[in-house]
Write a structure and sequence with these properties.
The chain is an alpha+beta fold. The chain is built from 10 helices and 14 strands. Strands 1-2-3-5-4 form a 5-stranded antiparallel sheet, covered by helices on one side. Strands 10-11-12-13-14 form a 5-stranded antiparallel sheet, with helices on one face. It has a two-stranded antiparallel ribbon with strand order 6-9. Helix 4 packs antiparallel against helix 5 and helix 5 runs antiparallel to helix 8.
């Protein structure tokens, strides 16, 4: 399982326990080690997240997951200590893994993308509501789990960075994790409910196919900046220089290249992303409900779009008509079908023109 670097106490505990057949380890546990297996009696798949709980200081995430119940927040089955320093909590395993895996492995149409974001916002509504007044501070695809058993159902997870807003104060200190998702105000060490909105906006941008190269951050640099960073001798110097460049992009609102979204993402959907990720937190959606309403209003008349094998597909929920656009040697061809089998040519022309034709239907 490639877990040789894991604390020996955890590996010993797992080898001695009789209840769960452990078969997989993940190093993506965020603040702790993460194992997966099958419960021998119940037969269901579960996840065990281990964390450092010295002096009881690490139990907050498990306690929080147990006390907040919502259909889009990861449920917790059990929480236990294995010694004075290490504890674990038990949750269901999600067969789709995290949202980043879904983005990397599946074709996601615009309707499913909005459904996923809506589920995240519904979970955030529970955290943000009066009485809880919690902010997550680390929203990213890695921290959203996906269940594929019945459609696409998402669960907010990894609450190790969560904080409660103090009385008479609308912000807390910012998290130092997930650098690429930090909003402008986080660089001043302030984090609001609207900061969570910003991070959800970035996730929406990613799901829809926008270029957000967290695994290759040098792609954010221009040729002059690349030349400069290559001239630096130490890794620390390169890291500091890269950080300064990215901070500047965040402050100027240029971290997201809206033009990198697929050509079929229309202006209305782009404007939703722009509002959610505004550099001024007061210009973003003021609440999860407002964000949800914008998505709901968009879907009222929106076509469903996706791309597969260089072919652009669309579906009109109102007319039940299917469309596809593909390129021949000279031009683009638009075809339509009622049954998704018998396709007939409707129009030929440039790509933008054909997409506009579908949008007007």
């Amino acid at each position: 399982m490639n877990d040789s670097s894991v604390d020996p106490r955890i590996r010993k505990f797992l080898s001695n326990q009789k209840d769960i057949q452990i078969d997989r380890y993940s190093s993506k546990g965020g603040f702790g080690e993460l194992y997966f297996g099958q419960r021998k009696i119940l037969g269901d798949r579960v996840a065990l997240k281990f964390y450092n709980a010295k002096d009881g200081s690490g139990h907050e995430e498990a306690v929080l997951l147990k006390t907040i119940t919502h259909e889009n927040i990861l449920p917790i089955y059990d929480a236990r200590m294995i010694d004075d320093e290490i504890s674990f909590y038990l949750t269901p395993e999600m067969d789709g893994g995290d949202l980043q895996n879904i983005i990397d492995s599946y074709i996601i149409n615009t309707n499913i993308a909005i459904e996923i974001i809506s589920n995240i916002l519904k979970a955030l509504t529970e955290l943000h509501k009066n009485g809880n007044s919690l902010v997550h501070r680390d929203l990213k695809p890695d921290n959203v789990l996906v269940d594929l058993k019945d459609g696409v159902k998402t669960y907010l997870s990894d609450f190790g960075t969560i904080r409660k807003l103090p009385n008479n104060q609308d912000y807390v200190s910012a998290s130092t994790f997930s650098f690429f998702y930090r909003p402008c105000e986080a660089l001043k060490n302030k984090y609001y409910k609207e900061s969570d909105i910003y991070q959800v906006g970035i996730i929406l941008f990613q799901i829809l196919g926008g270029d957000f190269p967290v695994k290759e951050p040098y792609k954010w640099l221009n040729s002059k900046e690349l030349k400069k960073i290559e001239s630096l001798s130490s890794d620390d110097e390169k890291y500091d220089y890269l950080t300064s460049i990215l901070n500047n992009l965040i402050v100027k609102g240029k971290l997201l290249n809206i033009d990198s979204l697929p050509i079929y993402i229309n202006k209305k959907l782009k404007s939703i992303i722009k509002k959610a990720t505004s550099i001024d937190y007061q210009r973003r959606y003021s609440s999860t409900s407002e964000f949800l309403k914008a998505l709901f209003d968009y879907q009222k008349t929106a076509k469903i779009w996706w791309k597969e094998d260089q072919i652009i597909f669309a579906f009109c929920p109102k007319s039940k008509m299917n469309y596809k656009i593909f390129q021949n040697k000279k031009n683009y061809i638009l075809q339509c079908s009622k049954d998704n089998n018998n396709w007939r040519k409707k129009k030929e022309g440039c790509l933008k023109e054909l997409i506009k034709t579908i949008e007007q239907k």
